[in-house]
Amino acid sequence: MYSMRIKPIIVLLTGFIFVSYPIAQDKQFMDMKGPYLGQPPPGLTPEIFAPGIVSTEKRELNSVFTPDGKEFYFSIQTPGEGYAVWFMRKEEDGWTTRRKAPFNSEYSDVDMCVSCDGKHMFFGSTRPLTTGGPPPGDFQIWVVQRMGDGWDEPKNLGAPVNAGKRSLYPTITREGTLYFQGIFPESFGGRDIYRSRLVNGVYTEPENLGSAINSQYNEGDVLIAPDESFIIVSTGGRPDGYGGGDLYISFRKDDGSWTKVMNMGSRINSSATEYCPMLSPDGKYFFFTSKKTGNGDIYWVSARIIDELRKSSNNR
User: Fold this and answer.
1) Do β-strands 246-251 and 9-13 pair in parallel, antiparallel, or remain unpaired?
2) CA–CA gap between residue 47 and residue 298 (Å, rounded)
3) Which own/partner contact pairs does 232-241 have at CB distance under 8 Å and 24+ positions apart?
4) Which of 66, 149, 198, 232 has its CA 20 to 30 A from that of 117?
């Protein structure tokens, strides 16, 4: 584990005070250069991402690159401590060693996504809504804004996004529409996938995506393509599943509706649990987490596999 000494920088901007945390202190570098932590790119067979560096004996999940490809964020679950966000940064001397992101709390922080312009990061957290206040007892969605080379103080998105239960795993489109998992009165069973549009800077009432995506089972860990052309969700218990939880994909039709989700198949799914779908900013690689090797490792595969599934979906 690597520690990081944080010195807040106070920035006064348009009447508001932000606390910006620099993210490049105490640098140590790995012997890795080039994009994607210097890892050789995969083909159509999923491979463990950065074995021994990112994917270790711990439980790693989430796989988030910033749009410029210079920062990589992921989560680690530690028994008894919950989740924490870690990151690595690409500089002239190579990629820095992994360290905790400065906006972590003493509570669980997990399931990050970065807006397409790189200006905001959304994530799930169990931290209190106010400093010194009680924790909410469930995950809610928070956002941090980019401030130079760091991030400002996290802010809770509030209602209506967090009006339900277990609002988590945010993913965002180029237009700013937020997709996430949650439990609301109109949910089909347990967790469902919802969409909240950004209108005049405000997130609207969440919309349930309907029976093409949601079911009596728990849907979660949703990935939306930046152009909303496809959606991937993790679901456990469906009759056509391979194991504890599988990744399913749906494609958006010309009329805006969704095709019925279909299992992504044995190249992605196994008798274990597959979850946490992510897409690289350039759209070339699909990332996910699988427990087939133990606690959970991050895998990546060429995103051409999504194009193949699209063709299969069109033939159904």
Assistant:
1) unpaired
2) 9
3) 232/264, 232/277, 233/193, 233/261, 233/277, 234/274, 234/275, 234/276, 234/277, 235/261, 236/273, 238/263, 241/269
4) 232
How many distinct structural domains can be found in the chain? 1
Residue 81 domain-assigned (yes or no): yes
Q: Is 178 exposed, middle or buried (0-12, 13-18, 19+ CB in 10 A)?
A: buried
Is this model's pTM higher than 0.85 or not?
Answer: yes
Q: What is the mean pLDDT of residues 124-153?
A: 94
Structural domain contains residue 19: no
CATH at 284: 2.120.10.30
176 is a domain residue: yes
The C-alpha angle with vertex 123 and arms to 120 and 124, in degrees rounded to 5, equals: 155
Does some domain include residue 276?
Answer: yes
Range of the domain at 181: 29-34+45-314
Measured between its terminal Cα atoms, the distance across the chain in Å is 48
Greatest extent of the chain over all pairs of C-alpha atoms, in Å: 57
Q: Is the preceding peptide bond at 35 cis, omega within 30 degrees of 0?
A: no
